[in-house]
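Much of our argument rests on the idea that a fold can be written as discrete symbols. Part of our work consisted of pairing the sequence of a single chain with a tokenised description of its backbone. No coordinates are needed to read the tokens, only the vocabulary itself. The record that follows shows the chain in one-letter code together with its fold in token form.
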Amino acid sequence: MKFSLGGSLKLAFRPWVEGIENVPAEGPAILASNHLSFSDSFFLPAVLDRKVTFIAKSEYFTSPGVKGKLTAAFFKGVGQLPVDRSGARGAGEAAIKSGIEVLKRGELFGIYPEGTRSPDGRLYRGKPGGLARVALATGAPVIPVAMIDTEKVQPPGKVVPKMIRPGIRIGKPLDFTRYQGMEGDRFILRSVTDQVMYEIMKLSGQEYVDIYATAAKRQIADAAKAAEAKKKAEAEQAKKAAAE
């Protein structure tokens, strides 16, 4: 399914690629990418000859009925790996363990250091727990990746994609083996993550925001709620004034 889907995506959207030679032909490597759209996990594998394994919610693989089975088959076919989000430490520890297992098999592991999609197209602070810990635990090189315009192909909340040509820019591998075995040092984890995010920023040309994307989403949601509350209050005041 990976090859049929990849061929269809390339034919339909004609994504352009720079730096594909930076992805090794064999051996383990971590592809650390910005995250603009749900379709990022499909476009990147589509342009590579090797399988890339990303993390996905286990719910995608366990939904009942025919639709659930088709969904599960689709995500397995495109290299998505189910992660159980239950438990004390949730998806974080499960993702780290899964990533390490993928790399130990000599495969490619894809990860989004921001932890979630950008709410506004800007690049947000990387979370140090996943990317850095997997890199230091395995010694695998980290390859920075920039997805370009994928949010225009499939904006959040939209099911039908727009026929816009996206791009993928792949940077040179980063070697962090000098820190191997130091995944318990939070300062090292922060330093490794920040270095990767800096390379992604250079590749993508995005504006960098030094807060987590999850915090930015909360701020945007709170602002929207406040604006809606203000709008309702003004409408009520206008209604009372008209009645007097």
Summary: The chain is about 45% helix and 15% strand. Strands lie at 16-18, 29-33, 52-57, 80-83, 108-111, 123-124, 142-148, 167-170, 208-209.
